[in-house]
Every structure is written in structure tokens, then in C-alpha cells.
Amino acid sequence: MERVHFGEKLTVSPVVIGTMNLLDWGVDARGLLDRVKEYIDLGLTTFDLADIYGGGGCEELFGRMLALEPSIRDKIEIISKGCIVYDTLRRPYFVSESYNLSKDYILSACNASLRRLGVDSLDLYLLHRPCPLMDPAEVAEALSQLRDEGKVKNFGLSNFLPEQIAALEAYTDIPFVTNQIKMSVKCMDFLADGTQEDALRRKMPLMAYSPACGGALYRKDLSKDDLATVEVLREIQHEIGAETLDEVLYAWLYRLPVKVVPVTGTGKKERVLRAVKALEYRLSREQWYDILRIARPADVSHKYHDI
Ligand SMILES: NC(=O)c1ccc[n+]([C@@H]2O[C@H](COP(=O)([O-])OP(=O)(O)OC[C@H]3O[C@@H](n4cnc5c(N)ncnc54)[C@H](OP(=O)(O)O)[C@@H]3O)[C@@H](O)[C@H]2O)c1
Question: 192 CB contacts (<8 Å, ≥6 apart)?
């Protein structure tokens, strides 16, 4: 499997294993170690974590897994993210999310991730979401410190718009190697907000989270619109000879000109393998547009109104 270059110093597997729901996979540290070894044998060596997943519990479980067999660390790439704050203490009656990209918060969040994982460094650290209050100069200081201390080898962003990336870049010489955003047949904002063009201009791969629409197309109580989408996806599934609908979802993303690395969320290995299998398909222009037409959410309609 061809690996994907994230900047000059890092390569990742073409499908990344997401761990947001790791605590629901039904594995303990030993079971996770077996699973990680299976993924490594398949060439799937890159794992996506975040401090907030499972309230820190996902990083802790991953750390306990690594402690069982420390040599695994050198066989994988660890990605983590920080800077989303769940504000439950100040207003317990209103569980809200806010973001903190102050220097102190970035440093403490990243150090806490390293502690939970029990590792000296991360291969890639992503700022999880942009914050209207972020001061790019402060962010730049925090990232430089983490780089200089050897705690983070590469940096990237998540959920950033092109102009927000540009604002940060004006204050740092640290290259951002990816932007992790929500991309699927049910979330096409990236086609309307300049994200794809920005990534192409930078020659920067995008990481697609929720590539299987968070499971939304597999529910029993699908809306009329989703049923129509599934019907088209099934037709294309048969046309390309795919075994499952998932493969079409991934193939739709792989057909884009920008390099897309999906971050799978499933806890089932056979479903992860569908993302790998889909690397073999190339949708025709007509198939790709048939999906765009039927599935496009309102947010991209204004840009592609004549289709
Ligand atoms: N940067 C960010 O802001 C951000 C935000 C969200 C997520 N993420 C990352 O992206 C990863 C993936 O996100 P996601 O979980 O939304 O991705 P996803 O792969 O689109 O959705 C996974 C969900 O869909 C279900 N699913 C997948 N295939 C299915 C099938 N064939 N039939 C029935 N159900 C199916 C899975 O259930 P099963 O487990 O039962 O298969 C799981 O509940 C996360 O783990 C995390 O690492 C990042």
C-alpha cells in the first residue's frame, strides 16, 4: 500500500485508524494490542487520537496497550489533538464546548496527552478546532516550544478554514502538514469553502473524518432524502463491483483531485478493510456527479446550483 507524505518528514498509511469510539470497541489493553498488531501487518500503522476522546480514556487505553509491548511504538505513527474544552464545571447545567488555543493551554493539553499515552513524542499534533480568540503569535510560541522540546515532530490543523491557516502561518515557520476535516457524501462543505483548493495549492493532503457519514446511512429510519442517496450509492456499488456501500463512500472521496486520507471510526476490522479495498476503484466522472447531485447538502447547493 502506497504511503502518503505529510510534509517532508512524515508518512502515514493511506487509511488512518480513528479512535474516538475506542472505549466501545469492546477491547482491553491486551485486545487492543492484538488489534493494533493486525493493523500493522496490514500496513495500517497510523492512529488518530485526541485528548477529549472518552474524556482522556482513549489515550489512556492506548497508553496501557503500548506499555504491554513498548516496541510497538516504533512501528506506528501516533496522531493526537488538543484544544477543545468541555465546560461542564462553570455551568454544569449546560454542557458546552469551547476552544482554548492560548500558549499555556496548548502546552498543558499536549503534555497531558503525552502522559496518558506514556510516550516521549507525538508524530503529529493537530490543533483540534480554530478559536475566535486565538492569538497566532501565542500559538506559534507554543508550537515552537513543543517542537524544540522534541515532544511533537509534526503539526497540523483540524476544522480550519483556509484563511485561518493563513493567519497562523503568518506568525510561524512551522509547516502545517494536513488539515483534518469532516468530508463525506453527507458533508461537502469542503467543496464550497475553498478548503480543497487551499489544500491543492499547498500540495497538502486532507484527512477526512466521518468518511462513512458517522454511520448515518446505515440507520433503519432513513429520511426520504437519505433513502434516495442510498439507492444511487447501491446502483454505483453494483456498477463498480463493490461488495459494500462503504466502498462507494470512500471511492467518492478518493476520486477528488486533493489527496484524501480517511480516518475510519468503525471498531470493526472488516469495515476498515473496505476503506482499503476502495483504493482500487476509480469512479467515473458521471458516477461521482450522480452522487454529488443526489446527496449534496444545502450548503454546497449555491455553488453548484446548475448541476
Ligand atoms: N477532527 C475532528 O474534529 C474529528 C471529529 C470526529 C471524528 N474524528 C476522527 O475521525 C474518526 C472517524 O469519525 P467517525 O466515527 O464519525 O467516522 P465514520 O467511519 O464515518 O463513522 C463510524 C460510525 O459509523 C458506523 N459504521 C461504519 N460503517 C458501517 C456499516 N457498514 N454499517 C453500519 N455502521 C457503520 C460505525 O459503527 P461500527 O463501529 O459498529 O462499525 C461507527 O459508529 C474518529 O474516530 C476520530 O478519530 C475527528
Answer: 299, 300, 302, 303
pLDDT in tens, 147-172: 999 999 999 999 999 999 999 999 99
Q: Which helix (H) or strand (E) holds 165?
A: helix 162-169
* CA-nearest residue, atom 8 of ligand 1: 209
8 A C-beta contact, residue 276 and residue 44: yes
Tally of CA atoms within 13 A in the half-sphere of 24 that contains its CB = 10
* Chain centre to alpha carbon of residue 165: 17
| Cβ atoms of 3 and 13 closer than 8 Å | yes
Of residues 301 and 207, the one with the higher pLDDT is 207
pLDDT in tens, 59-104: 999 999 999 999 999 999 999 999 998 766 565 555 567 899 999 9
* CATH class of the structural domain 4-182: alpha beta
In a 10 Å sphere around its CB, with 0-12 CB exposed, 13-18 middle and 19+ buried, how is residue 123 labelled?
Answer: buried
In the chain, where are the structural domains located?
A: 4-182
Pocket of ligand 1 (CB under 6 A): 18-21, 48, 128, 158-159, 180, 209-215, 218, 246, 263-268, 271
Predicted model pTM = 0.96
